[in-house]
Amino acid sequence: MSPLTPDEADWLRRGLSLAAEAIEAAQPPGRQTLVTVYRVLFPVTEFQAEGLAGAIIDWSRRDFSIPEVAVGISFDRAANRFAFTWQSHQPGPGEDVRRKRPARDLRGRLLPDERGAE
Hints:
Elements: H1 6-25, H2 50-64, E1 71-76, E2 81-86
Antiparallel strand pairs: 1-2
Helix pairs in contact: 1-2
C-alpha cells in the first residue's frame, strides 16, 4: 500500500475544509475536532484525485450528521473525466446542524462530558 500523493492529500484537505464549519457547529461548545485519516482505499482505474474531496465530504456528512455540502458533478466527454464544483455548506433558513451520536474515545467509551448527553 503506497502513501497518498501530495495532490491526493490536498484534495482530502480541501474536502474536509468545505465541511469543517458544519462539523464544528455539530460539536458541543468549546469542543475541538481532530480528523485523522489512517487509510484510503480506491480503485486505481478511472481514478480522479478530486473525488477524494467528495468522499471525505460524504464521510463527514454521515459521521458527524451534518447537512450536505453542495457539490456539482458533471462528466466532460471530451476530456473523459468528471468535473467538480465545490461550495461550502451554507445553512438555509431554519436549517440547523445537530449531533446525533455522542462523542466516544478510540475504544468506544463515552467521553466524560458526554455521559449525560442524549
